[in-house]
Specification:
about 150 residues, mainly alpha, Arc Repressor Mutant, subunit A, two-stranded parallel sheet, globular
């Protein structure tokens, strides 16, 4: 899963960087259904992508746990890094949760944008556009995020 870069050429370059030279082909039906769901979600439809099957075989167990919890967050809702960390063993794992989400290979499907820092701050977002993109995704989904950026964010 690759979120768009500023141009199609940059998006393709990023995909090639991650996967090497691959042959472009029409997506199989299950992948097309996921694409359609993502597009509908970005247009504001209340789409649940939790049934999309992901290949997490190469993902380390801790990260897999983070992603499984993140996938339970419905559109329009959020959890904090600390909330997820507590479910995985302790709030002291919050930074590890953030790092796992920063390496999320399936953005939108694993909705890392629905995970906030303490105090309702957006925290980081590694996709193109950074925190601005995260806040736009949350706004599309109707999530109540009470956040005003300051000079110190």
């Amino acid at each position: 899963m690759q979120l768009p870069q500023p141009s199609e050429q940059q998006t393709r370059a990023r995909i090639h960087q991650q996967l090497g030279e691959i042959k472009e082909a029409a997506p199989p039906p299950a992948v097309q259904a996921a694409i359609d769901g993502i597009v509908a979600l970005l247009r504001g439809a209340p789409v649940d992508l939790s049934a999309v099957v992901l290949d997490l075989d190469r993902v380390p167990p801790f990260r897999r746990g983070v992603y499984e919890i993140a996938r339970t967050i419905p559109p329009g809702n959020t959890l904090s890094y600390g909330d997820i960390a507590k479910r995985l063993g302790g709030v002291e794992l919050s930074r590890d949760v953030g790092q796992a989400l920063g390496r999320n290979p399936y953005p939108i499907i694993v909705p890392c944008h629905r995970v906030l820092a303490a105090g309702g701050k957006p925290g980081g977002f590694s996709a193109n556009g950074g925190v601005t993109t995260k806040l736009k995704l949350l706004a599309i989904e109707g999530a109540a995020v009470n956040y005003t950026p300051s000079l110190f964010d």
